[in-house]
Amino acid sequence: MFLGTHEPKLDEKGRLILPAKFRDDLADGVVVTKGQEHCLYLFPLDEFTTMTETMKAAPVTAKGARDYMRVMFAGAHDEVPDKQGRITIPAHLREYASLDRACVVIGANTRVEIWDAQAWATYLAAQEEGFADVSSEVFPGIF
After folding, report:
1. pLDDT of residue 90
2. Is 33 inside any structural domain?
3. pLDDT at 130
């Protein structure tokens, strides 16, 4: 499980140092791809494999599933972090997420999300009020 908020910087080669507390869980390999709200999703390789197995069950006739999978898989990049815990974010993914130098890396349960620092601040400010005011069950049986 990935938790917390971290603020690493991208270097001039587009490399990102993964938070130390995430490195063991990501050491065997990662997949980085486009996420919602123009962030990037970073999955441990085994989690990505599990997720793709579930996606295989989607009918080819479901347009929404086809569209989602095309965007997700076409933009995906896999690699193994180096000895310093760095991964390279390809240019097309940096562009999609508007990543320049200042980034925010958040734990999001089974995945990690990579955000442009300003985009994250804007998103979080907009969402925190709604989070505080939730009056119905978002996750039935849990909250």
Report:
1. 98
2. yes
3. 79
